[in-house]
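If you are new to this repository, start here. Below is one unmodified record pulled from the training split, so you can see the exact layout before writing a loader.
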Amino acid sequence: MAGWLNQHWSKVEGMKAEVRTLEIGDITWFVRETLEGDKGEWEYDWYAGHVIEKKTVPDLAASIMGTRWMEQKLRLKMMRGRKYYLIEGVGSVTGSMVRGGEDRSDKLTT
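And here is the target side for that same chain:
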């Protein structure tokens, strides 16, 4: 992912992608600032207010069927800024949620 982001955003001066473990989301924007203090320079990363949660159509359906959707939704709600869902692939989430004749699409509205 970082390679793709760096390739496409390399024309924007000072913009680069970095791979790291995130507490929430799959893509998050940070601003890195170099600060000077009594003990020299140090870098500080601050959250820039945007987070993306990526899901494939089958993964989204599985998340909604289980408890993961609500857990992630609650954690995202606690964050300030804008939140986005990036749904990858083609297909119907509601079609993926029908199992054994039981339609579980009512969970989409939560």
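Two things worth knowing about this chain: The first helix runs from residue 2 to 9. The chain has one domain: 2-109.
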